[in-house]
Amino acid sequence: MPASMPTLMINPRNFFVNLNWRGSRGFSSLHFLPLMLLLLAGISQPSIAQQITVTGKLELLRKDATTDKDASFGVVWLTRIGDPGEPAPTNGAPRQQLVQRNKSFNPHLVVVQVGSSVAFPNKDSFFHNVFSLFDGKRFDLGLYEAGSSRAVVFDREGISYIFCNIHPEMSAVVVSLKTPYYGISDARGAVSIADVPPGRYELHVWHERAIPESLDALARTISIGDAAHSLGTLRVAQQPTAPQPHKNKYGQDYETASPSDPLYPHP
Questions:
Q1: How far is it, in rounded angstroms, from Cα 64 to Cα 69?
Q2: Strands, E assignment, 96-186
Q3: C-beta contacts of 97-100 below 8 A and 24+ residues apart
């Protein structure tokens, strides 16, 4: 056996590698931070490779069994079964926005994790009063002027239908989920959910124009892995008639006119 033998020890507290060398004059120690970084990179690489992109297609079926040409704004999400350990929303992540411009919300649909904040900037030249008093998060931002913005934290899971108490033609939807694994369908119905770890999940689907029973029928348990990452075609029965006009925040019908006078008084 050699007279001197190096001993490699990893210190997890400061991420240094201590190389202890026992020679004729005792122990000596060298610190190698770059070596530790290389080791960590090698350890983390397999876990990154395990992330899977899940794909699928959403189809909206009319009453006559034909397919709607526009299947956009559908939401598909996966909830991990068992101990989820889902990552919390990142504080430094860009805040989602529902911009009010030309008496409309843009975009029409926003999906966030529970605990995320959504801003409602007013880019019109007149007042708005954003509210949601039905499902999901219930709030009333009151009357606020052009150029200003207010925000809401969506601290519970659910579907929030967003309206303006002044302009009945304005509507949007915020879907707040406990899971980060979700995707939004494009006009062709294509859905992609990135960075999904392998495992067993509950599949859920939502669309604003869907019959609720049709969505319930699509909910099921699935397994995601290297050989199982396609959801196939998710067919959703579409409501045959347009939704009924919504009420204002007082539960009453809107006035016939949709005023846009920039001189609305403050509440």
A1: 14
A2: 96-97, 99-100, 105-106, 109-113, 116-121, 128-132, 139-144, 149-154, 158-164, 171-177, 182-184
A3: 97/121, 98/130, 98/162, 98/172, 98/174, 99/123, 100/124, 100/128, 100/130, 100/164, 100/170
Residue-wise pLDDT for 142-176, tens only, equals 999 999 999 999 999 999 999 999 999 999 999 99
What range defines the domain where residue 37 resides?
5-49
Give CA–CA dist 112/75, Å, rounded.
11
Q: E-strand spans in 12-71?
A: 16-23, 26-31, 52-61
Per residue in 109-135, pLDDT (tens digit) is 999 999 999 999 999 999 999 999 877
List Cα–Cα distances, 243 to 208, 211, 238, 239, in angstroms: 10, 11, 11, 8
For residues 156 and 175, membership in a common domain is answered with yes
Indicate the number of domains in the chain: 2
Q: Does any domain span residue 254?
A: no
* CATH code, domain with 198: 2.60.40.420
The CA distance from 221 to 137, in Å, is 27
Domain assignment of residue 265, yes or no: no
Q: Which residues pair with 97 in a beta bridge?
A: 119
Q: Based on the domain organization, do 42 and 97 belong to the same domain? A: no
